Amino acid sequence: MSIRHRASPRSVAVSTAVCALTALATTACSALGDAGPAVPSPSGEAARVCRSLHDALPGKVAGQERGETDPASDYTAVWGDPAIELRCGVARPAKLTPGNEEYNPTAEAAEVNGVSWLMEKRDGGYRFTTTDRVAHVELTVPDDYAPEVGALADMAAAVKRTVPKRER
């Protein structure tokens, strides 16, 4: 004899809610844990040049050894602890996007060894994003590694060699 159980609409709703909360909690926990930087999802030329950059990245940045990211990705890299984090193929920063409420054409920028970077102070460090490349490369540098330009100098050769300038 087989017994067939029919779920009531209420039990289906409760089950769905429990599954959704479990998924949300798992995502939140991994986002707050020791996971690496959030992985961007570039496409086309940006994805291609980001993979090339990943292969050309230096073994050391600001005197820190390169580590492993979790999850492993051709679009992210880390050095040291606390981690200097690289993400390639990120969206164009709002400060560089005309029409965006954060747009600021006079935002602070620095050119280090031929690579132009937008500088943004964040809690605990700086975020630098390339300004004139076919793929935006973001480097987050904790305050522990001041002066931050050392990390940019270490990154410049790989960026110049693999991420072409955007044609104007």
Task: Please tell me about this protein's structure.
- By secondary structure, the protein is of the alpha+beta class.
- The protein has three helices and eight strands, in the order H-H-E-E-E-E-E-E-E-E-H.
- Strands 3-4-8-7-6-5 form a six-stranded antiparallel β-sheet. Strands 1-2 form a two-stranded antiparallel ribbon.
- It is globular and about 40 Å long.
Outline:
This protein is of the alpha+beta class. The protein has three helices and eight strands, in the order ααββββββββα.
Secondary-structure blueprint of this entry?
Blueprint: H1 9-32, H2 44-56, E1 60-61, E2 64-65, E3 76-79, E4 84-90, E5 109-112, E6 115-122, E7 125-130, E8 136-142, H3 149-162
Antiparallel strand pairs: 1-2, 3-4, 4-8, 5-6, 6-7, 7-8
Helix pairs in contact: 2-3
Low-confidence stretches at least 5 residues in length (pLDDT < 50)?
Answer: 1-33
Work out the radius of gyration: 21 Å
Give me the secondary-structure category: alpha+beta
How many β-strands, per DSSP? 8
Query: What can be said about the biggest beta sheet?
Result: 6 strands, antiparallel
* Shape, per Cα inertia axes: globular
Could you list some keywords that capture this structure?
single chain, 168 residues, alpha+beta, 8 strands, disordered N terminus
